[in-house]
Amino acid sequence: MKAMRSARRRRYVARADVMEVLYRVYLGAIAAVFILAFLAGALHEVPADPGSVAGIRSDAPAIIGIAVAVVLLAGLRAGARGGPLAIEAAEVRYTLLAPVSRRTALRPAALAQLRTAVLFGAIFGAVVGNFVFRRFPGTAVEWIGSLAAFGALVPIAVLGAALLASGRRLRIGVATAIGGALVAWSVLDLALGSNSSPTTMLGDLATLPLQHGASPGLAALGAVLTLGVLAAGLLGIGGLALEAAQRRAQLVAEMRFSASVQDLRTVILLRRQLASERPRRKPWIRLRGGSVWRRNWQSFLRWPVVRVVRVVLIAVAAGGVAVGGFDLTPVLFVLPGPLLFIAGLDLIEPLAQESDHPTRRLLLPRGSAELLRTHLTAPTVAMAVVLLLAALAAAAIGGNPGLALGVGVVVFLPLAVVLVCAAAVSATNDPYEFALNPQLAQTVSLAPIVVALIAGFLPLFVAWKVEGGDGAPISGALGMDFVLIVLALVGLAALTLRFNKREREAQ
């Protein structure tokens, strides 16, 4: 009887998982239809010129391969720290210590995480493919199919690599070395014009309608290698370290609760603990003085290497995605803003710490609004440097350095202010301020991300839309500075009102 009840329970859980997946597919399909319908009416794309087609055919696979290799590096490092699975603490304590196969116990959680990632990756790839086929040779079926397959295989590769590193208990140094070797291999492919790296082969899959000769075979080989990595990860999943799993389970449980109440600040702090990301005991350069400006820069100079590398990679990724928007489809213009917003959350850390200690702030002989403006200066300068790095990356990756640098120069300062204000609003948000009105609380939490998306999208889209020489797109982007200034003033006013209100409540 117990065996029958256990089997019935497993069938019920499996049926519930299937229904959950179907429901997510349904929601994703509805969202994709609305996005496609809106953008198809707003965009009027023209076919790409032969030079652009030839450049995409020759260089895009290796560039995409570099991006995939960087993501794989992150997955390997996460696996070396006990990821990517986030099971409950009780399952770690009882299920994984029970006399059953750990591989059998962990496989459902791994497959559930894999299904979700593959679903969203395939949907995003299909959405991009729907617009790419309008500019490049190839049918809609070829582009949508190849990019949907690419979007599905990337999370498979990342999760497979993370599971492999976790199951084999790779040291963080070994995982970093393997990921770094993959990145270097893809960079070498770009320099030599070859297609030998497994990640470059996935890049061949993303541009399959433009490829010919041996490239389809290489794309198929890349897909087979990706599935092989996933199979190896699933087979070795039982080697997960219990100590790492217990620590991860506790932190992830706290992160889930914080995310459920839109407490982004706590999520950021827990994610840093999860990644073992600690500030340096000694700064890279020690500054003298006691001003707020000096304290902010001293905070940046205590960043660990991994955080510095992450911000630089975000800048390069934002520049590369912007180039992809010009060369492939302007749908990609929605990505630079959220990417740079993530960097802004790191840059706004001194102000966030000031907000975490309101009683100490009241002891200072300065008003909250004045202190707030002082705390925003250093992050704005740092964000401006990040934006200039993104412009330099776009100039190096794209085929028109003058346009990339021109657009970057005319918008980098107001865009930096908007992104820093958006990150400050998000990092200093009180998740329980609107506890009785969940819809308003969710709106307040999502507003900074939406503002960052709009601020990154508008200048690039206008520069893409305006026809003419390099001067015309740059002038169009310059016209968006007024919109960015308005968004910055709104963000600054919101922050001032928030801090003044908290100061009155604390007195």
Oligomer: single chain
Given the structure, what is the number of helices?
20
Helix content: over 70%
The unreliable regions are: 1-8
Large-scale geometry: globular
The radius of gyration over CA amounts to 24 Å
Beta fraction: under 5%
Q: Pairing-aware structural class of the strands and helices?
A: mainly alpha
**Number of separate domains:** 3
Task: Kindly describe this structure.
It contains 20 helices and no strands. It is mostly helical. The chain is globular. Mean pLDDT is 82; it is low at 1-8. Helices cover 78% and strands 0% of the residues. Helix 11 (292-300) packs across helix 16 and helix 18 (438-465) packs antiparallel against helix 19 (471-479). The protein has 3 domains: 1-42; 49-250, no CATH class; 268-506, no CATH class. The longest helix is centred in the N-terminal third of the chain and has 41 residues, at 2-42.
Notable characteristics:
78% helix; 0% strand; disordered N terminus; mainly alpha; single chain; 507 residues
Question: Secondary-structure blueprint of this entry?
Answer:
Blueprint lengths: L1 H41 L7 H31 L8 H7 L6 H31 L7 H28 L4 H21 L5 H9 L8 H21 L6 H19 L3 H11 L17 H9 L4 H23 L8 H12 L1 H8 L1 H5 L5 H30 L3 H27 L10 H28 L5 H9 L1 H26 L1
Helix pairs in contact: 1-4, 2-5, 2-6, 2-7, 4-5, 5-7, 5-8, 7-8, 9-10, 11-16, 12-13, 12-16, 13-16, 13-17, 13-18, 16-17, 16-20, 17-18, 17-19, 17-20, 18-19
